[in-house]
Design goal:
The chain is mainly beta. It has one domain. It has 2 helices and 9 strands. The longest helix has 11 residues. It starts with 7 loop residues before the first helix and ends in a 24-residue tail after the last strand. The model has no long low-confidence stretch (mean pLDDT about 85).
């Protein structure tokens, strides 16, 4: 099933695998306890790329993703249960471990944002817009590897409608 969030350019790159086109996979981890977002790219070198204008942190800015060996297995498209994926980052630095240690002792979840970029559109923005945003459910970290299970927010237990229809906000409701 095609992914409607992917741009036409990256769909073509996935289908034809051109030699002159490189697809960069990036991951951003965020938690309120972090001093700054953890941004990594699956490459040996750091990558400067523009994030989307609607991002919660640094919207529309060109940010640096640090080169790390990581893998993300996307969630299955299933009709039963909540889809989950696995995220693994190898050779985790002490800075990342310190940030993760700060986050796991709080009740707030860590957010993971996956973005993909084409080598010729790094200054335009990610080629999957909106990016895939997940919540980390479990995290196991040591200096050799960070392994996390991530899933989507619990949409089943969200309140619907999300708005409170009261007379102050919607005065037209008054009889």
């Amino acid at each position: 099933m095609p992914d409607p969030t992917l741009s036409a350019a990256i769909q073509e790159a996935y289908a034809s695998a051109p030699v002159n086109q490189v697809i960069y996979h990036t991951l951003e981890l965020w938690h309120p306890a972090f001093s700054q977002p953890i941004r990594v790219v699956r490459d040996f070198n750091a990558l400067d790329a523009r994030i989307e204008a609607g991002a919660a942190r640094d919207p529309g800015a060109i940010v640096t993703f640090v080169g790390f060996a990581f893998d993300i297995v996307p969630p299955d498209q299933t009709s039963s249960g909540l889809p989950q994926c696995t995220i693994e980052i190898d050779n985790v630095s002490q800075e990342i471990l310190a940030q993760i240690d700060l986050a796991v002792v709080t009740a707030q979840p860590i957010t993971a944002i996956y973005r993909s970029y084409l080598s010729d559109t790094l200054t335009v923005g990610p080629d999957n817009n909106p990016p895939m945003e997940l919540t980390l459910i479990t995290v196991n970290a040591n200096p050799f590897r960070l392994k996390a299970t991530a899933g989507f927010p619990d949409l089943v237990n969200l309140r619907f409608p999300k708005l409170d229809y009261d007379l102050e906000t919607f005065p037209g409701l008054q009889p």
